[in-house]
Amino acid sequence: MIVRILRHAETSANRSGLLSCDDNEPLNHNGIQQSQALCEYLSQYNFDQIWVSQLPRAIQTLQPMIDNGSLEHIVLPELVEGCYNLDHTAPVNDRWELGLDPLGDFRGRVQAIIHRVKAQVGDGEILVVTHGHFIREFINMLLDSHCYVRWPIDNCAETALEIGEDVKILYVNKKVI
Hints:
The protein is an alpha/beta fold. The protein contains seven helices and six strands; from the N terminus they run E-H-H-E-H-H-E-H-H-E-H-E-E. The protein has a single domain, classed as Phosphoglycerate mutase-like (Rossmann fold), CATH 3.40.50. A six-stranded mixed beta sheet has the order 3-2-4-1-5-6. The longest helix is centred in the middle third of the chain and has 16 residues, at 103-118. It is globular, with a radius of gyration of 16 Å. The mean pLDDT is 87.
């Protein structure tokens, strides 16, 4: 099974270097243009399933394909971004516990998606459209990493993993447009 994970297109917060956690911020003008190019890129694949975060910026990233009726997708609330306290003076674990999404809850959502992926049978492909921190956590948890890696995840970047008896990282943060 190949899992292709995309980070949503650009928002104004992304452009400004801000973390927007779980808010409903839409794509900015550049992000809308990116979504057009990204959907052209994605048209080369025949995905067995497409899973999308329920936040507007993720859904809008696929909007051109949704609008023309060429996309059947499942919106999964588990794919929303983790949200933690942005007080960078607080210890790392406290940032989560003081935030809107306790670390255990966030990791539980990531683990639910990992289980869902592993439950798929066959040699197909799944597309997941989600958020940067979710993608980092997904990779670290899937690999059962004992040392957290802060993988770089840019807007519209693709990460591809082959999941079978073993997990193979095909690439991380590949700019596709």
